[in-house]
Structure formats: structure tokens, C-alpha cells
Design brief:
Blueprint (H helix, E strand, L loop, with lengths): L3 E4 L7 H26 L12 H18 L6 E4 L3 E6 L5 E6 L5 E5 L4 E5 L7 E3 L5 H17 L3 E5 L3
Parallel strand pairs: 5-8
Antiparallel strand pairs: 1-2, 2-3, 3-4, 5-6, 6-7
Helix pairs in contact: 1-2
Length: about 160
């Protein structure tokens, strides 16, 4: 069977979406500053300073999303081949994980979820969650893992949920 290599860094937000996120973040930041300005400098007692918490919270949340969509992610991939299962993914600190086929005892696949479990021994059972991937990519990964495990004579168990 041929190897599966998926580049996970290729999907990005469009420029229009990035600009809209930054505009949304800036708008709520200015609303929060405006509420503080009206309370402290103009002394409008009707508008309490605690009303600025919500716009600042929304600005911080959208700012984090805008920053993560703007920053380029490099070297994020998922690889399934004859020797190993390997992937590198993460938002802040990407981690590279490698699992050798020769060390596996069994593979647990979930029917209703985008997850699978690789069983080495009783204590080491890593659960790999690929819900963050698109449906087509996660389907390809699970399908390749299923067929490679069958070809390597590794027990494959199917569950409704993991």
C-alpha cells in the first residue's frame, strides 16, 4: 500500500477573513476604551466602568483567533507509511509524535468519532484525536491506518465511541 502524507499547514484563512477578524478585535477594543473614557474622564456615572469588561473580553478572544490565523504554521503534517505513523501538529508548541508499527499490539478505531487508539501494552495506550482535521483528511488517515494494520497482522477493534 502506498504511503499517506498530508500537509496540514496548507489550509489558511483568506485575507478577507483575517482583515475582518482584526477589524472586529479593534472595534471591541475601542468600545472598551470608550466606556472607560466616558466613565473616568467625562464622569458619566450612568455608565459604570465594569461595562468595559465584556468588550475587552471579546477583543482579547477575537485577537487570539486573529493572531493564530495570521501566524504562519510550518511543518505540520500527518504521515502513515510501512514503518510508522508520524504527525506533527499543535497551536503553540507543535509536537512530533512517532509510532512504529512493529511495537503495536492492536488498534482501536471509533465508528462515531474521529479518534483512534494505538495499544502498545497495558499502560501505554495513546489516543490520537484528529477532530481538528477536515472530514476528508481524517477519513483518509483512518482508512490508511486500518488497511496498514490489517496488512501487518495487528488486531483491529472497532468501537462506537472511544
Amino acid at each position: 500500500m502506498e504511503q499517506l502524507y498530508l500537509n496540514l499547514a496548507e489550509h489558511e484563512f483568506s485575507k478577507g477573513r483575517k482583515i475582518l477578524l482584526w477589524i472586529f478585535c479593534t472595534f471591541f477594543l475601542l468600545v472598551g476604551i470608550g466606556i472607560i473614557y466616558m466613565n473616568i474622564i467625562q464622569h458619566q456615572i450612568k455608565i459604570h466602568i465594569s461595562f468595559s469588561i465584556v468588550p475587552f473580553g471579546i477583543a482579547i478572544f477575537t485577537g487570539i483567533i486573529a493572531y493564530l490565523s495570521t501566524v504562519k504554521r510550518e511543518n505540520h503534517y500527518f504521515l502513515v507509511n510501512d514503518e510508522k505513523i508520524e504527525y506533527r501538529y499543535g497551536l503553540l508548541k507543535p509536537i512530533k509524535r512517532t509510532f512504529k508499527w512493529e511495537n503495536l499490539k492492536e488498534v482501536h478505531l471509533a465508528h462515531k468519532q474521529k479518534k483512534f487508539r494505538l495499544v502498545y501494552n497495558e499502560k501505554n495506550k495513546p489516543l490520537i484525536n484528529i477532530t481538528w482535521l477536515e472530514k476528508k483528511k481524517s477519513y483518509l488517515i483512518i482508512r490508511h491506518i486500518y488497511f496498514y494494520a490489517r496488512a501487518k497482522n495487528i488486531t483491529v477493534k472497532k468501537f462506537n465511541y472511544l
